[in-house]
């Protein structure tokens, strides 16, 4: 029994309590989903941990995958014997991180009720400013603050690292970022200080960037399995296959995630516009309200691009992300009809950039 734990230590606050009362769930204990398995969930509250399942009614009435519980959710439960429980209701979410499934017009909920999303890249071949922007877009769209962790800094020289820091500061001037190495332990104290008691942090990134190794360092134990170090690359491979929540000694809450090969844009237009606020502001000055910012006359975005006021790579990524977000919104029938036009749209955007190059 976790008798010393208070409910707010698990991230519970007035937002969730007020919603529990609105839903008339006062008679139900609440618990937080800390792991998701096939057909079951691990949930935790002040009384302990439970293996929980949802009701058949919830399965029947769910209109999409988003209606099912996800790691980070607060749920009203009925406690059974043998540390088992039934999830009666999912409380409204304060924030959510989701992405589009590959080749499907569906979304995958990565985690919910997150305060900060750590977007992690390593300094080797994984490093990409455009990928940072993709993760930033899905975080911001869900109301989550993104922060950057640049990991494995022991692999490159100080000059190479300084160049990457300059690139990040130029592209993400307002973002918090931390430099780390699990080999030298550089930056780990700063990361521990950044993580606050009762707040929830989600670690996002590609496979092999060191998410699990960083969390193991924060926990102080090798709880999360990582594959053996490759003799050829001297780097460990990510072995996490499911999402799981961990509670740090300082009271912080972290969620490890499987590596994601692709970060597809779902309904993230608001996140994209907030991330690319400079371009979005220019878009409002275009001659045509439905301007695609690729070829139209009187396009304020293209004018700024030609004048060198917008970074070319940032513009290209903006066009790609907006195109994906718009594509996601189409029905399956519309998508089949628009496949050819969408490919042409992206081709024209890339051609526009190439024509502007000296």
Characterization of the model:
Helix 3 packs across helix 7 (269-275), helix 7 packs across helix 8 and helix 10 (312-329) runs antiparallel to helix 11. The chain contains 11 helices and 13 strands. It has a 6-stranded mixed β-sheet with strand order 10-9-8-11-13-12. Strands 1-2-3-5-4 form a 5-stranded mixed β-barrel. The protein has a two-stranded antiparallel sheet with strand order 6-7. The protein is 34% helix and 21% strand. It is of the alpha/beta class.
Provide key terms for this protein.
358 residues; 11 helices; globular; alpha/beta; 6-stranded mixed β-sheet
Report the radius of gyration as a whole number of Å: 22 Å
Strand order of the largest sheet: 10-9-8-11-13-12
* Average of the residue pLDDT scores: 82
Count every beta strand, where a strand is a DSSP E run of 2 or more residues: 13
Beta-strand percentage range: 15-25%
Give the terminus-to-terminus CA distance.
67 Å
- Helical region count? 11
């Amino acid at each position: 029994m976790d008798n010393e734990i208070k409910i707010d230590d698990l991230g519970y606050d007035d937002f969730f309590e007020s919603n529990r009362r609105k839903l008339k769930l006062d008679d139900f204990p609440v618990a937080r989903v800390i792991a998701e398995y096939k057909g079951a969930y691990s949930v935790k509250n002040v009384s302990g941990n439970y293996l929980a399942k949802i009701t058949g009614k919830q399965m029947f009435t769910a209109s999409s995958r988003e209606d099912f519980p996800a790691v980070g959710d607060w749920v009203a439960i009925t406690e059974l014997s043998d540390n088992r429980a039934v999830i009666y209701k999912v409380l409204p979410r304060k924030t959510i991180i989701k992405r589009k499934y590959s080749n499907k017009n569906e979304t995958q909920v990565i985690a919910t009720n997150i305060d900060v999303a750590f977007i992690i890249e390593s300094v080797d071949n994984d490093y990409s400013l455009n990928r940072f922007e993709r993760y930033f877009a899905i975080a911001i769209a869900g109301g989550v603050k993104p922060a950057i962790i640049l990991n494995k800094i022991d692999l490159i020289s100080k000059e190479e690292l300084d160049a990457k820091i300059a690139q990040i500061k130029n592209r993400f001037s307002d973002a918090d970022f931390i430099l780390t190495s699990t080999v030298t332990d550089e930056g780990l104290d700063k990361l521990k200080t950044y993580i606050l008691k009762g707040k929830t942090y989600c670690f996002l990134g590609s496979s092999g960037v060191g998410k699990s190794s960083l969390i193991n360092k924060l926990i102080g134990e090798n709880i999360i399995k990582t594959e053996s170090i490759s003799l050829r690359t001297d780097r460990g491979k990510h072995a996490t296959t499911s999402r799981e929540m961990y509670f740090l000694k300082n009271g912080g809450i972290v969620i490890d995630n499987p590596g994601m090969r692709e970060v597809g844009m779902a309904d993230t237009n608001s996140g994209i516009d907030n991330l690319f606020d400079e371009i979005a502001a220019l878009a409002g000055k275009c001659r045509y309200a439905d301007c695609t910012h690729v070829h139209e006359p009187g396009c304020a975005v293209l004018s700024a691009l030609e004048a060198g006021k917008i970074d070319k790579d940032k513009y290209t990524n903006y066009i790609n992300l907006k195109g994906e977000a718009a594509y996601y919104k189409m029905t399956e029938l519309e998508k089949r009809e628009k496949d050819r036009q969408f490919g042409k749209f992206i081709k024209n955007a890339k051609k526009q950039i190439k024509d502007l190059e000296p």
